[in-house]
Amino acid sequence: MHILITGTSRGLGEGLALHYLDRGDKVFGISRNDNRGLEKHQNFKFLPLDLSDFDGIRNKLPGFLVEAGHIDIAILNAGVLGEIKDMGECSLDEIERVMDINVWANKVLIDTMYENLERISQVVAVSSGAAVLGNRGWNAYSISKAALNMMIKLYAREREETHFSAIAPGLIDSAMQDYIYSLADDPRFPSLRRLKDAKSGGEMPSAGEAAETLAKAVIKAHNEESGSFIDVREI
């Protein structure tokens, strides 16, 4: 199978790439930084790309996709958290920065793939429970993931030949969680304390473990209507 994954430099994206490489699939990885471990695999093809550079996506992705011809599964994993603060403290520039990576870069990726591939069988956008929970402080991130969910639903209505889903992978012990753990406790944002307790208590799966769980959810997603939002903890 041909698997395209964004954000393969570390964390969940790296774990997913290793999962599919171990299966013998060909993985097309995209991220801003390289991953020397992945590049040792013969079936790993890498495109260094800053996903905030929309023109760069349009100009560089077509050539990268020539070898693929088609994509069986595209996993849009790359994303940024943004700052944890109250909405009134969150600038439009900050919201725009997060939206560019978490939403609009994925739109440009999807559109460019359709323009340059024979077919795309499945598209999975890595979402988050933050898209629906509305926890205080998660402003730009929550807004971006909610918008991502709706964008995936809209593509599903337009592209019936492809199965779309937005999947929340649950807790992951990742660089994002390391950042959250480094933040000072703030009574305004009780969700931070819960995440810190989960991390210190060993309740967070590693990126590799989370990747295995998500890979199973990618298969199960076909049982759901195209365009659905799926939480791995509920399937």
Tag the structure with descriptive keywords:
single chain; 235 residues; alpha/beta; Rossmann fold; 47% helix; globular
Report the span from N to C terminus: 24 Å
Low-confidence stretches: none
Rg calc: 17 Å
Order of helices and strands: EHEHEHEHEHHEHHHE
Largest sheet: 7 strands, parallel
> Strand-residue fraction?
15-25%
Query: Any idea what the CATH architecture is?
Result: 3-Layer(aba) Sandwich
CATH superfamily: NAD(P)-binding Rossmann-like Domain
The 3D shape can be described as globular
| CATH domain fold name | Rossmann fold
| Secondary structure: helix percent | 40-55%
Number of domains: 1
Q: What is the number of E strands? A: 7
Briefly note the structural class of the backbone: alpha/beta
Can you summarize this structure?
The chain has helices at residues 11-22, 36-39, 54-65, 92-116, 130-133, 139-158, 175-182, 190-200, 207-220; strands at residues 2-6, 26-31, 44-48, 71-76, 120-126, 163-168, 228-231. The longest helix has 25 residues, at 92-116.
Commentary on this structure:
It is a single chain. With 235 residues, the protein is of the alpha/beta class. The protein has one domain: Rossmann fold (3-Layer(aba) Sandwich), CATH 3.40.50. It is 47% helix and 17% strand. The chain has 9 helices and 7 strands. The longest helix is centred in the middle third of the chain and has 25 residues. It is globular and about 50 Å long.
